[in-house]
Every structure is written in C-alpha cells, then in structure tokens.
# Entry
Amino acid sequence: EAGVTQSPTHLIKTRGQQATLRCSPISGHTSVYWYQQALGLGLQFLLWYDEGEERNRGNFPPRFSGRQFPNYSSELNVNALELEDSALYLCASSLGRRRINQPQHFGDGTRLSIL
Amino acid sequence: GNSVTQMEGPVTLSEEAFLTINCTYTATGYPSLFWYVQYPGEGLQLLLKATKADDKGSNKGFEATYRKETTSFHLEKGSVQVSDSAVYFCALSTGNQFYFGTGTSLTVIP
# Structure
C-alpha cells in the first residue's frame, strides 16, 4: 500500500512569488492535514481538509490556503512568499472525521526555500 | 485547552543505555496518545499509540503507558541503538484535532 506522497521534494522560490505543494493521501483516507516545520520550531498546524471541505485552520495568515480534490488529494498554496516561509511542509492523512482518534500518517515533506 | 509538553532536548546517550523521554498532556475528554519518530530528512512515522487509560503501546523495543492519573505518556526503551538517533514527538488526539509536542532530539553514540 502506498503511503502519503508529497511533491515536489524541494522547491526554491524568491520573495513575493507563489508556491504550490501537493499531497496524495493513503488510499481510503479522506482527511488531509498540513503542517509547517520550521527549523527548531516543531510542528505548526496549518490546515485540515476532510471530504473536500476545510474543517479547521491554524494561526496562519490568509496567504496560506489550500483545497482538497474529489479524489482527496490536496494542494497547499502560499502566496506572496516571505523569507520566514522557508520550512519543511508536511502533509498527513487519516481515515477521516467520522473515525475519531485515528493516527495520522505523514509524507516525507516538501522543503520550501525562499531566497 | 489541549496541549502536550515534552522533555527538552537534545538527549545524548551511549549505545545500550536506558532511554526515557517525558511527555505530559492537558486534554478535555478522552484523548488518544501517540509517539512519532522523525529520522533525518524524512517525515514523521508513527511509533506507538494508546487509546485509553492504562493501555501500553509498544513497538521496536519502545514502550509508553497511558497514565490518566498523572496525565503522562513517557517513552522508554531499555537499550538504545545508534539507529534510534532521531527526533521523537509526543502527540494527542481529541476527535480529529492533533496536538504535537515540540520534539526531543536523541543522539546515540557508539
């Protein structure tokens, strides 16, 4: 069974540009979570999607947005990139909001570097 | 609110030493508790979990017991190996919301 896959592995952008990160969940999972892991800061929750709807978002500005497609894959978009957006962006999937307290399964992340 | 507090690192141990990484939590309701491990350059992997009080999760020689009376879920291993060097995250889940600790870096030296 394929795990959570994220693309691209690395992404280099300059300030002010826009970045799109992609995530494919484990087959059968309907929930996708996005996290930002900046150096030394642990995991910061960004967004949660389930069954195509945004269910919750963390304390990030509106230039961080995303969506979930009918096949449950997801995109994270970051507009007007700033230097402090440089981080590892992790996607996780789980069985969905109808199955509570299930573990999240993580991809290997997209390393976003802002020059 | 819900939160997880875990032991600050970094932790450095010699091979075959005993490991404890402390984790305490604050939660409403009846959370599930998890330990995740992150190896360099990779995402987080589920290491073990416990879904109710007094449950013991175990995997790869690691253990943690869900202690409701002390709101703790400490990670232990009797004899660490160099390959255990990684960052360890304690987490809790209430419903569909996850809360992660800040991570504890472990380095095991031969």
Q: What stands out?
A: Residues 84 and 108 of chain B are 7 Å apart (CA to CA). Chain B has a mean pLDDT of 93.
